[in-house]
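[stage:ingest] chain + small molecule (adenosine monophosphate)
[stage:ingest] validated
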Amino acid sequence: MSNHLFDAIKAAASGDAAFLRIDGSRILTYNDAFALSGRIASAMDTLGIRPGDRVAVQVEKSAEALILYLACLRSGAVYLPLNTAYTLAELDYFIGDAEPRLVIVAPSAREGIEKIAKPHGAIVETLDVDGGGSLLELARDEPADFVDASRSADDLAAILYTSGTTGRSKGAMLTHGNLLSNALTLRDYWRVEAGDRLIHALPIFHTHGLFVATNVTMLAGASMFLLSRFDAEEVISLMPQATMLMGVPTFYVRLMQSARLNRNAVANIRLFISGSAPLLAETHTQFQARTGHAILERYGMTETNMNTSNPYEGQRVAGTVGFPLPGVTIRVTDPVTGLALAPDETGMIEIKGPNVFKGYWRMPEKTVAEFTADGFFISGDLGKIDCDGYVHIVGRGKDLVISGGYNIYPKEVEGEIDQIEGVVESAVIGVQHPDFGEGVTAIVVRKTGAALNEKTIVDALQDRLARYKQPKRIIFVDDLPRNTMGKVQKNILRQQYADLYTTS
Ligand code: MLC
Ligand code: AMP
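[stage:predict] done
[stage:export] tokens:
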């Protein structure tokens, strides 16, 4: 029996090589990770988890949490990671929609989750950040030599939810083939080898920290320093022992705020990679001046894994996301006619390749709507390909804010604000933010005499929306600007409040 992704991971690594470096002293080898993932997979089998069952996971980052992802691959389960910032109200939707057979949460969250999960027939087990919890207790006495479930390239490995521009979040279905092909391509493109040591400071519930960082590391048999979160000083302290860093642009902005970041500090680093949000050309240039390193920017999406990358050798051009990866086809089309555009013309970016997902979970119409007749995925990003072949992302055709690498859909935030007593209507926009790239900003119209201020609105959102989706600032106005069709003109609001975070 073969397991498409896990077999490749197992074959790539030397068993006694270091995989995870934790807290400066603890090292887990690949053999350790394979043994523990085998025991967890056996425990899940005992719990009745079968290939194709969804396993939803909302736990803090830890070595065991990462190994749980491997266990799911091996058992044939579909891994469904959830942002630790999600509130119970948000989780209720994901669990109802995905119908996981098993939900794994922190011990402190068990009671609340059980109320949501049990009506959907899910079992709840726990995993805490120190490697405790009921799941590992079950796994302790299980055999390590689990017989991996047979999974082909087309079988699902994971579902990752992405918020929708028009309402409900959609579960992007990623296959073993999607993940393996993209990770092998990136490994080769970025020349990742067994001797590499990646500083891993990203969350492990999104494509960037989970698939790009982790799959690429494992398929090179390399190792990573697993940090619970990003802390610029801690990252700089680790640099002399590391060779690579992957981060969102906020990482690089924050690193440059430290006086300790200089050529000496980065002397051992081979490659700095940025993605998930636009890296300002000025950040790229300043970082290069300080460290001598041209950050390698790449472009991806939950639905497609990685699509483009600046070159390893050759010029990494600031403000561009580089070339289509080998095997990936990118074209730019006229959003109205759908016809392919010439170089340097701006239009919709469309993507085709083995990296592109299988569709949205239980949303066949949405899936059809987001693909062209000839099988290209319509990204929602506006861009162009210049005469040298570099792809530029110049805007978004979708109403989306990206803050510190997290996507926030204004529609969802507006929906919650509009339900608050005393609110007539709201418009949520992204405004340039020095730390997060864009800051979620709400423009709100109150009913006459309503006793509403910034605090009452934020308080009302507390249990409804993850903290990172909540507006950093709320501005009250008498009316929202509208065009003749009655549509709110967000471009006018974005211009009007453009300096909100840079001048205060
Ligand atoms: C935290 N906060 C955020 C935030 N992260 N607010 C807006 N945007 C964010 N990204 C909130 C906190 O809850 C806190 O609220 C306040 O802002 C300040 O927190 P902080 O301590 O400064 O935040 P920190 O923990 O340092 O986190 C910032 C960060 C983190 C940038 C390091 O958000 C992060 O790791 N982002 C990476 C996201 C990511 O992996 N994206 C990849 C998606 S995959 P308060 O008010 O309670 O103090 C993808 C595909 C691809 O897009 O191409 O890769
Ligand atoms: P997500 O849905 O979280 O996977 O976010 C994907 C979106 O992030 C893409 O559609 C882009 O809008 C954006 N994105 C990712 N990488 C980059 C990048 N390097 N430059 C600009 N935007 C990016």
